[in-house]
Design a protein that fits this description.
about 25% strand, three-stranded parallel beta sheet, single chain, 12 strands, 6 helices
């Protein structure tokens, strides 16, 4: 996604934060703001790239293609015996294929995308149930995470961070 920082009806950085909370689409910020502080702020809010105006269309095209290549790589996750291919929706532990529900896939995606960092329960619920989680029983997430742990066959890979949420444990080398 190409996103201008200076929108006529608001700040593009606010839209960037909203997008990054809900999806994994790569976002390239376009802006005339070329101060170092602006660039750093854009990246810290989740921008995947930052292009200042004026810019060459050839360079912009090259940056877009580079981002798309990286997105393909991010759709696959490998750790130990686990291989998760979110693009083709195939999930394996060794040679064993794991059958995951849509809810379990979405939880797994959010956890491995943030591997090593706790994901708050509210953020997971909002992502998994598309902001309709107010209508979902408060124990639904706990039940879904426990089902996912069981299907993965390794309950230690998803750690409960008490009072916060859940964390995908990164394998130590």
């Amino acid at each position: 996604m190409l996103l201008d920082v200076n929108l006529p009806d608001g700040k593009g950085t606010d839209l960037l934060v909203w997008i990054k909370e809900r999806q994994t689409t790569p976002v390239i910020l376009l802006t005339a703001n070329d101060m170092e502080l602006d660039v750093v702020a854009g990246f810290s809010l989740g921008a995947d790239d930052y292009v200042t105006k004026p810019f060459s269309l050839a360079i912009l095209r090259a940056r877009v293609l580079a981002r798309l290549r990286r997105k393909e790589d991010r759709l696959r996750y490998r750790q130990g015996a686990f291989l998760f291919d979110f693009e083709n929706l195939t999930f394996r532990r060794g040679e064993q294929r794991l059958e995951l529900s849509r809810t379990e896939q979405r939880i797994l995606w959010m956890l491995v995308k943030n591997a090593g960092h706790p994901v708050p329960r509210e953020r997971l619920q909002s992502y998994v149930w598309d902001d309709t989680f107010l209508d979902v029983d408060e124990n639904a997430l706990s039940v879904a995470v426990n089902r996912l742990r069981t299907k993965l066959g390794d309950k230690s890979c998803i750690r409960t961070v008490y009072g916060i949420g859940y964390c995908w444990e990164v394998e130590k080398p």
